[in-house]
Amino acid sequence: MIDKETALARCQDLVALARRTGADAADAVARANASEAVTMRLGKLEEVERSESEEIGLRVFVGKRSASIHTSDFAPDGLRALAERAVQMARHAPEDRHSGLAPQDRLFTGELPDLELDDRDQPDPETLREAALATEDAARAVGGVTNSNGGSAGADRAVVALATSEGFARGYAGSGFSLSASVIAGEGGSMQTDYASRSARFRADLPSPETVGREAGERAVARLKPKSMPSRKLPVVFEPRIGGGLLGHLLGAMSGPAIARKSSFLLGLEEKELFDPAIRILEQPLRKRGQRSRPFDGEGVPCTDRTLVEGGRVTGWLTNVSSADQLGLGLTGHASRGGGGSPGVSASNVHMEPGDVSPGQLMEDIEDGLYVTSLFGQGVNPVTGDYSRGATGFRIRKGEIAEPVAEITIAGNLIDMFRALTPADDLEMIRSINVPTLRIDGMMVAGE
């Protein structure tokens, strides 16, 4: 796999080539990735995956017309043809007065901060095999587990580089490691399955394979013999593993492009108190070893830590160049880039601050409620905020988690759900979006 210096040189060369070919402005992003994963099932090697990829994407501007194209062909003739084709495409594209590159005075400058993103201690296949086997063995050792979908261990390393004709040129590398297991409990028609997984930038930050495997087994066994429950409005408690999805919906609604398209349920609510005033939601793109940490965004604008929700109110929208221009706002460092196409918007390392009570105290006054451990279905309307998802989990009876439940649906509206949300104190910073246990009163639960 190429290093970041090579990736950056390729970007700079391609931008220069595009300018010589007739582009008024251009940027290029290069990505390279190498990954390896091993899966064990029933104690035997089931799959070994190894992949490497390298690609470069070019975006060119001719006036206010633009085009994007990407390739994995790095031969000089191929890159020259790529630049020529991109400029030709741009000349025939419609004008977009909001498109463009980030201006020079908004670009990242100086030395890149050391975010500790790259663990060069990459494990060999045998080490991954041993970790995958230990993870599965621990899951299968839990009483009640009857079969396995497998245990896996993986490692990857990636390089990203960005260069623009405004003078920006930076790159960085990052690593990732993962452990997971999925097992089956019970027999015949009463079988239940569940999983556990963890990922981290540094292998040393992963929990032990035994911890991950045991969690997978215990989760599967706990789901045996589920029942339904009566349909009515109840308090609903979200475990941290899935509660982060609620923040995902919030971030999507705060996206500048969604606001510009008028396709966000937050339109007109900028000054409204959406959450309890005590709730704070933070973004930390510069957190060391964070799973989505990055020093600059997909347009070369520096990323900075910021508060997204303060005093119950959102503090502003998340923009890239196009949406900032449409909305008359400044750049916030949230542009995201794939291999080709125009930048989108994404946030980095978001978390909700913990509350003041334990999960047990959060539930102790619930006579009848639902503790949700998994969600399925895509029933969320980003324009209205209407929310309806299939769910499984556990009944809450007199403040205690009781029998497992399944074949139910939970519904509400995200605006109402945010206002009724209460966090517990069990926040763990182990994902890209982290929340503590969350309670929302008054949600509709549809069961039998």
Automatic annotation (TrEMBL):
Residues 26-90 form the Metalloprotease TldD/E N-terminal domain. It comes from the Bacteria. GO terms for molecular function: metallopeptidase activity. One of its GO terms (biological process) is proteolysis. GO terms for cellular component: cytosol. Residues 232-447 form the Metalloprotease TldD/E C-terminal domain. It holds the Pfam family PmbA_TldD_3rd. Gene3D superfamilies: PmbA/TldD superfamily. Coiled coil: none annotated. InterPro entries: Metalloprtase-TldD/E_C, Metalloprtase-TldD/E_cen_dom, Metalloprtase-TldD/E_N, PmbA, TldD/PmbA_N, TldD/PmbA_sf. Residues 121-224 form the Metalloprotease TldD/E central domain. Belongs to the peptidase U62 family. This is TldD/PmbA family protein. The lineage of its organism: Bacteria, Pseudomonadati, Pseudomonadota, Alphaproteobacteria, Sphingomonadales.
